Amino acid sequence: MVEYGYAGKILRVDLSRRKVDTVEVTRDFALTFIGGKGFGAKLLYDGVEAGVDPLSPENKLIFATGPLTGTLAPSSSKFEVVTKSPLTGIFLNSDCGGFFGSELKYAGYDVLVVEGAAEKPSYLWINDGNVEIRDASHLWGMKIGETFEALKRDLGEKDLKAACIGPAGEKLVKFSNIIATVTRAAGRGGSGAVMGSKKLKAIAVKGSRDLKIYDVTGFVEAVREAYEICKGGALKIVAPLGTPAALPIANDKGVLPIRNFQRDTQPNLGVKLGPETMKKYVFRSIACSGCPARCGKVSVIVRGKYAGTIVEGPDYETLYSLGAVCGVEDFEVVVKANELCDEFGVDTISTGVAIAFLMECFEKGLVSEKDVGLKVSWGSPETLLTLIEKISLREGVGDLLAEGVKRASERLGGEASKYAMHVKGLELPGWEPRALQGTGLGYATSDRGACHMRAQVHPLEAIFGTLDPTSTQGKPEIVKRNQDLMAVLDSLGLCAIPGLGLWRSPDREMEVFSLLLQKLTGLEFTEEILWRAGERIWNLTRMFNVREGLTRKDDTLPERILSEPIVEGPFKGHTCALEEMLDRYYEVRGWDRQGIPTDSKLRELGLR
Questions:
Q1: CB neighbours of 549 closer than 8 A, spacing ≥ 6?
Q2: What's the CA gap between 163 and 341, in Å, rounded?
Q3: Edge-to-edge strands of the sheet including 184-186?
Q4: What domains are defined for the chain?
Q5: pLDDT at 241
Q6: Residue 178 phi/psi, 5° resolution?
Q7: Comparing C-alpha atoms, which of 117, 1, 9, 13 is closest to residue 58?
Q8: 500 has pLDDT over 70
Q9: Closest by CA position to 60, among listed 77, 78, 42, 73
């Protein structure tokens, strides 16, 4: 068992048999897969056979911390929820901040693996070495806030660390999420539905154990250096008002998708939905465990129609998905919509893009008021708020949209697929891939479907301006490098936002990670070993997806992105030149022309 940095154990809970056991984390396992995403990917690949229904008891739901989770390292709050996605049918890891991951480590576990399914609603109570499967019948049906308050009363814990699902997870909405410590979400891909399929309402954790550090003095010095580096770059933009600081930049540059990607810029939208408006509503800032960014902003509406609304957010992606992409320009409406999504437990990105899909189908005459049971129009607060509830409870047309835009478009038939903005079933984030070529390649090749966080090219193309967004030159190499880097970051237990500060010091990221890990764990986590581990993890998730039947044809983008040029703004006339980049991407990855890892590459990485 590893002695330093890690808790040293994997906790397995079989809900079907109501059995609990533990497995030790070995030195070789740690050096090969690091933690977090890496641990989860390996456990999922080995433990879930091809073709398993994501909502069956045979699927696993994995909560995996990283070696830096719960330490003094900057932004070290993250844990990964790893499972087979019910939305996409492929690999999913969704990270989450707050304090749950740190508490799980303090309780003595690096990883929690949930198997099987309970016969009735249940929750887990992990109190250091004591693990109980408890009845949650009284919690079933509760929204997120109610669930946390009820758990606090049940357990007598005022400062409870827990992760739970809302009504959307119980109803198996394909993009329902898991909420940790009330305000943080493992948002994308439907992990909440997997948890709901297992009749698991919540996981509550209390830990009192210390983490052992190999070289305390050396680790503290490494932490100080990391904090100094993180002060630059994104932190200067994000700290005052969070990620919404990027919204006026995106709008001005013409890369903010509006009305289901029909437009990409609009006069004054950066003011209406941006930080200048948001600061009128922000009550206070919230930080995750060990984070200098404090990017969580609590917004409060004190008067008017939505008086009493309180929510942490909205962040950039929520302002895009519940605002711009639905044609909504009222900040208060977005705040209210954000609150509804958080209380029901649904991903704001997929929810907003699903609603925008229906709005365009209505606009194009593919569905009518009679078909959907309500009048649907761009920018309508009533449309937005009503559909969020209908989706979350699977009522009326909400039952269709709760399947995600890919399945919804297939069921509607006709031209509906033209307006379904997704990759591999996962709805697109808020950065225009026709303007940002590297971002488009990152969306197409992401291991979980459309994702801006996997390749992190959009800050370089749209925010910092360090890359020419319209050029395809060198983008396959950058996407590959950043995907490997983010695989490491997601395995360490670090958040990407302060991590972007490291990107302002080119080629120093892995140097800092290596120093932190070696001083923390005493293991030989050299820069080379970390880069190789990131590549190994990315290839392992690709192997999982290939085993599920994915090939080159799935590494694509929506028809609109490939064939409909941008109609106005700085990037008027542009589409994404995906095919131009894809062959080179496969080449630098060591995959064949169909996107399948070659035997020689897998042997090189120790995966054969």
A1: none
A2: 16
A3: 130-135, 122-127, 200-206, 161-164, 178-180, 184-186
A4: 9-206 (3.60.9.10), 242-427 (1.10.569.10), 437-494+526-604 (1.10.599.10)
A5: 79
A6: -115, 125
A7: 117
A8: no
A9: 42
Coil, strand, or helix at residue 577?
coil
Q: What is the pLDDT of residues 202-236, one digit of tens each?
A: 999 999 999 999 999 999 999 998 888 777 656 66
Tokens for 483?
A: 């995907």
Helix and strand numbers, DSSP H then E, in the chain: 27, 17
Distance CA 474, CA 441 (A): 11
DSSP states along 2-65 = --SSS--EEEEEETTTTEEEEEEPPHHHHHHH-SHHHHHHHHHHHHS-TT--TTSTTS-EEEEE
pTM above 0.90, yes or no: yes
Q: Are 379 and 356 in contact (CB under 8 A)?
A: no
Distance CA 366, CA 376 (A): 12
Residue 339 has which token pair? 């609150």
According to the model, what pLDDT value does residue 360 have? 98
Is the CA virtual torsion 460, 463, 464, 469 positive or negative? positive
Of 67, 64, 62, 56, residue with least CA distance to 31: 67
In sequence order, the β-bridge partners of residue 131 are 126
Find out whether 347 and 186 touch, Cβ atoms under 8 Å.
Answer: no
Structure tokens at 312: 């942490």
